[in-house]
Design brief:
Belongs to the EcnA/EcnB lipoprotein family. By secondary structure, the chain is an all-alpha fold. The protein has one domain (1-40). The protein starts with a helix and ends with a helix. The model has no long low-confidence stretch (mean pLDDT 82). The longest helix is centred in the middle third of the chain and has 41 residues, at 2-42. It has one helix at 2-42. The protein has one helix and no strands.
Amino acid sequence: MKLIAAFLSLFFILGLTACNTIEGAGRDVEAAGGAVEESARENKNY
């Protein structure tokens, strides 16, 4: 029983960590996209 509880605890902790990592990566990609979009606006020739 203790082994199952330990496994489930580890599973949930790793799951929460993965969510935070994915969220951070999403923010980074969004920021990079915003920078590219702003640069495109500044360098438009028409």
